[in-house]
Amino acid sequence: MAVQLVRRVSSEIRRDVQAAQERDPAAKGASQALVLLTWPGVHAVLAHRVAHALRAVGVPALPQILAFLARSRTGIEIHPAAQIGQGFFIDHGSGVVIGETAEIGDNVTIYQGVTLGGTGFQTGKRHPTVGSNVVIGSGAKLLGPITVGDGAKIGANTVVIHDVPANSTVVGNPGHPVRVEGKRPTGPDADWAHLPDPVADAMDALSARIAQLERQIEELGGLPAPSSEPASVARANLRASRGGGPSPAGG
């Protein structure tokens, strides 16, 4: 049994190193030995593989000690009981937290500052279940026993508290699915800089509607034409007319 366990962990670690080489541009051309020695995300996952295996066979204390040492070394905290599939890659990784009952599928990529956490002090299953081929952007928080479907993408700084459909992209706080250029999102190459911003889209729609209403009222003779000066200039002129100086808050 011990031999089988060592073989399984070794196979998982080799796949994790390959995942780093495939998904991290900085690892292109780097040898497996170099990635294994110098990539903190790989170190954290390696320590977790060993700690999880030791916990599975009932070794006391040592799994928690390994998890503590890995957190001290890498800034990545993974509970030894968390279940993680093959090809798991943590890019950069500082500030990543993966809770006790979290479950992660195969070929998942997460970035720094991601939390797979619980809510409150409930017992039992209290952390997210993440499907395969999922990408989770920097600073995203996935909270509670939610399920993230296969192939989903979670935008940077998104707060997810509800289930995420497969092959969808989720942004916002609270997070909700959006479409990216009408294409089904797959793979770990999300263009995080150009994700949709539904809040900005709604504000643009409201601004356009207000402008349309102002034009209609102007045509009816109810209001003068709106000022074309920038809002910042208008605020400065208003303060000057009231005799006020510059705002102590700046701007």
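Next protein, fold it too.
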Amino acid sequence: MRLLQSPAVRVGLSISIATGLYGVSFGALSVTSGLDFWQTMALSLLLFSGGSQFAFIGVVAGGGSGVAAMGAATLLGMRNGIYGMQVNALLRPRGLLRFAAAHVTIDESTATSTGQTDPLEQKRGFWTAGLGIFVLWNLFTAVGALAGASLGDPKQWGLDGAAVAAFLGLLWPRLKGREPVAIAVVCALATVLAVPFVPAGVPILVAAVVAAAIGWFSHGRSDEGLEPDMDPYAERPHPHGRPSGDAA
């Protein structure tokens, strides 16, 4: 019970439940996009990166090749490598824990950890959010996959475009600041222009190249960009009794 009094643990548990439940939508959309139950579970167990997973099934649902789907998922998952460097410097895991930490380094676990000032709370927040989301995400992915398998043809239910819509639902709340919104609009335009001329799945790679080029030549503020899904500071009390932040 004392562990539940930890602010980092409370934040981590709340984020785990909120994010894990969303695995239902991924599981259902994955099987209606053409993957079977075990392929869907393999994506959640091994890839374990919501945005990358939705990008993968979005390309597959659009008729793209496995290579294009993996390329899109990889590009979106590169941010986790950047998080990993930050988490490694912050928590300094040792031995086998380094592999486990790498696997559960995602937006939410990183945000929960870096939102704490006490080193012990940083560790508690990271592991609570990382492991909690991993367990619940895979559990509800299985629930969604089993439910989705009974739906039949996804076009009958209007689900053929739902994977893309779900991915946009994950992406849009993270865009904060004028520059990232402008980049998103330019990339969307590049994707639309590329669709008639390239195979399915390639337009998203074109958009990624455009975004990388803009980022390379941009001189915008370094603190603007894709933000984590949750703001752990929202649940931390202000030393003078005022709230220290708003939920993202």
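About the second fold: The beta strands are 175-176, 225-226.
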